[in-house]
């Protein structure tokens, strides 16, 4: 009863204040002169009016009035601060900064904090850091309200150097122990990839709240430390800290197993959050990631009032599960229900199209994005670049890249990676040199460059790039960078050098490093090193069937049938199933999928007949191929002179690679093949990889 009375009193006070304000405005606009208008407003009413302006025009009108008012010079700083804040909240950062600049010689920290926050809230992170630097040059000391916004900007920009300086300022000013500043530091270091510092800060914090736990869990999730993230979440539960939505969302992002997903869902139910739609949406993606699309779909169907996020989450779930056709079907249903997509929706659609490697689908989606005038244009443009790369068209990817009004480190890395995937290592390095003159590369960029050097056999350039990481850019090599180096050395036949490189690594080699060595042993038939790599992989990556298959094939190609059969038997005992190879080809805007021995296509007989003719032509060229069905299907159903685009879910084998070169020669057709690792452009009997793959 008391709560009801208090609520009624508060509502009555708000209503009285609103009525008073409305009456003041009526008197203001009915006054015959500016002098009379000022009589109806006191400073408190004016400030209240500023905060209630909902349009830019109304705020400009009120601003003009304050400039003429008789009390402006007594309350100018307070008024300016509120005007700056309101202009920024209405999206007019130019008006906000112009007004701020008129009094920027002021040492009022609150005003500076408002302007810094305005830049951050409007995603102008560079300007917020510039303003902070200017503030420090004027010897204006920050407080606990300054640091969270500046650190947020550092995190979004991945500017760890500036972040470290701000961290030092927080320590020097005594605010490092403030829980909100500490949480912001953890979030910043997490976005910059320094989870070790995040954990140190967490352990040293004298006070923690649920946001502290959430920040560290999120940092673990962002940096692929999923096991550590779930262990922290479990510890939080054990200590009796009630979770909120955000920490559960971060924990869901760490989940990789069905049992883990079930545990997190029990926490959701136990804390009465099972009807929270944002958690239901996240649960779809979580279960899809664990391979349980049935559970993901069940969550989706259970949401009665599906919002845009629900549809987008289901699209993303199918895309992550490599079910692109299902993802596009959900998108089609969403459009039929007149739910308007946003930029995040299109990022999921783009992922689905990338998985299909459908060039025509890519053109269609790109056209829709151009005409929709969506927000988050930088992310969309970058995703479209990646889409064209994965659909085999570097020309279209580069056109989109060159036309981008703004580029970030991800944009540059994506285009560099595209050149590497298509075997154009020199072009990748040239673009990398251009990038370094404009923006600092990060760890992702170096993966792209090192991978490009590996695929192109650029050993000296790869070493120089690797050595420059820490020396020139302060980027410490991660396991993925070491894996690229092992791959580069291994492809070039420098297997002993690759082994010695692994032995000298300052960190423990992971599955990616050993997998690169095993792949190189397959190329060069080195049984001894293959056994060493496989032994490590069977412990680190025991559920990956590719490791067993590669070792078995190495044994078989070396005539060691008993050892090959032993590995196959080991797979069976461990319940590891070989991934079924399939090939996808797009003909006349329709996607066709084939598996070995497939006779389900209506044109099966005609295709096999054409296959026999093609085999005769290739035999006359001096080669007896082991051809597969999709190439011939593409020749039959595509127009003369058009390129044939094919996607394989596994690495292209040596026999298929050689056969496809002959097919491109005798038919005069370009054949673009995307396998599990890279692209091969076959034309006139040669391949873009130069037989180096």
Automatic annotation (TrEMBL):
One of its GO terms (molecular function) is zinc ion binding. InterPro entries: DYW_dom, E_motif, PPR_At4g14850-like_plant, PPR_rpt, TPR-like_helical_dom_sf. This is DYW domain-containing protein. PPR repeats lie at residues 108-142, 178-208, 209-243, 307-341, 408-438, 442-477. Belongs to the PPR family. PCMP-H subfamily. It comes from the Eukaryota. One of its GO terms (biological process) is RNA modification. Residues 631-693 form the DYW domain. It comes from Citrus sinensis.
């Amino acid at each position: 009863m008391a709560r009801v009375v208090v609520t009624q009193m508060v509502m009555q006070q708000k209503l009285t204040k609103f009525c008073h304000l409305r009456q003041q405005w009526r008197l203001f606009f009915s006054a015959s002169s500016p002098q009379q208008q000022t009589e109806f407003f006191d400073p408190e009413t004016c400030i209240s009016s500023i905060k209630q302006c909902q349009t830019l025009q109304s705020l400009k009108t009120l601003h003009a009035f304050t400039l003429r008012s008789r009390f402006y010079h007594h309350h100018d700083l307070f008024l300016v601060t509120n005007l700056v804040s309101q202009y920024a909240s209405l999206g007019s950062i130019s008006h906000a900064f112009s007004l701020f600049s008129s009094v920027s010689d002021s040492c009022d920290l609150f005003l500076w904090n408002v302007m810094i926050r305005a830049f951050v809230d409007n995603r102008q992170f560079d300007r917020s850091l510039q303003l902070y630097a200017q503030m420090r040059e004027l010897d204006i000391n920050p407080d606990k309200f300054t640091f969270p916004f500046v650190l947020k900007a550092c995190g979004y920009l991945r500017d760890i150097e500036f972040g470290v300086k701000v961290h030092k300022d927080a320590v020097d000013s005594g605010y490092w122990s403030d829980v909100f500043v500490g949480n912001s530091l953890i979030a910043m270091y997490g976005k910059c990839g320094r989870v070790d510092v995040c954990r140190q800060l967490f352990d040293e914090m004298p006070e923690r709240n649920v946001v502290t736990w959430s920040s560290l869990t999120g940092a673990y999730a962002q940096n692929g430390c999923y096991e550590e993230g779930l262990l922290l979440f479990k510890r939080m539960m054990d200590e009796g800290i009630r979770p909120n939505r955000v920490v559960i969302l971060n924990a869901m992002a760490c989940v990789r197993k069905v049992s883990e997903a079930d545990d997190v869902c029990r926490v959701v139910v136990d804390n009465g959050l099972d009807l929270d739609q944002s958690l239901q949406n996240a649960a779809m993606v979580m279960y899809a990631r664990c391979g349980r699309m049935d559970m993901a779909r069940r969550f989706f169907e259970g949401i009665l009032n599906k919002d845009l996020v629900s549809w987008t989450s289901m699209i993303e779930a199918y895309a992550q599960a490599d079910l692109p056709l299902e993802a596009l079907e959900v998108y089609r249903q969403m459009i039929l229900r007149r739910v308007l997509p946003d930029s995040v929706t299109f990022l999921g659609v783009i992922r689905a199209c990338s998985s299909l490697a459908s060039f025509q689908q890519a053109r269609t989606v790109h056209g829709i994005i151009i005409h929709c005038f969506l927000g988050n244009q930088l992310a969309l443009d970058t995703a479209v670049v990646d889409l064209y790369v994965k659909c085999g068209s570097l020309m279209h990817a580069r056109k989109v890249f060159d036309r981008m009004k703004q580029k970030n480190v991800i944009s540059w890395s994506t285009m560099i990676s595209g050149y590497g995937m298509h075997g154009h290592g020199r072009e990748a390095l040239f673009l990398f040199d251009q990038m370094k003159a404009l923006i600092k590369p990060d760890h992702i960029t170096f993966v792209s460059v090192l991978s490009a050097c590996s695929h192109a056999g650029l050993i000296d350039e790869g070493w120089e790039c690797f050595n420059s990481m820490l020396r020139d850019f302060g980027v410490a090599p991660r396991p993925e960078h070491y894996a690229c180096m092992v791959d580069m050395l291994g492809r070039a036949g420098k297997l002993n050098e690759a082994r010695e490189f692994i032995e000298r690594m300052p960190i423990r080699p992971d599955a990616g490093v050993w997998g690169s060595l095993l792949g190189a042993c397959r190329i060069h038939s080195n049984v001894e090193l293959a056994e060493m790599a496989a032994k490590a992989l069977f412990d680190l990556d025991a559920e990956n069937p590719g490791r067993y298959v590669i070792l078995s094939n190495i044994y078989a190609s070396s005539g060691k049938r008993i050892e090959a059969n032993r590995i196959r038997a080991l797979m069976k005992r461990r319940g590891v199933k070989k991934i079924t190879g399939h090939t996808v080809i797009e003909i006349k805007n329709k996607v066709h999928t084939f598996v070995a021995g497939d006779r389900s296509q209506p044109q099966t007989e005609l295709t096999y007949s054409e296959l026999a003719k093609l085999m005769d032509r290739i035999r006359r060229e001096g080669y007896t191929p082991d051809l597969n069905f999709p190439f011939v299907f593409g020749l039959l159903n595509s127009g003369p002179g058009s390129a044939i685009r094919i996607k394989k879910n596994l690495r292209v084998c040596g026999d298929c690679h050689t056969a496809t070169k002959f097919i491109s020669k005798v038919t005069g057709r370009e054949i673009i093949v995307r396998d599990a690792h890279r692209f091969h452009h076959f034309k006139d009997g040669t391949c873009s990889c130069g037989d180096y793959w």
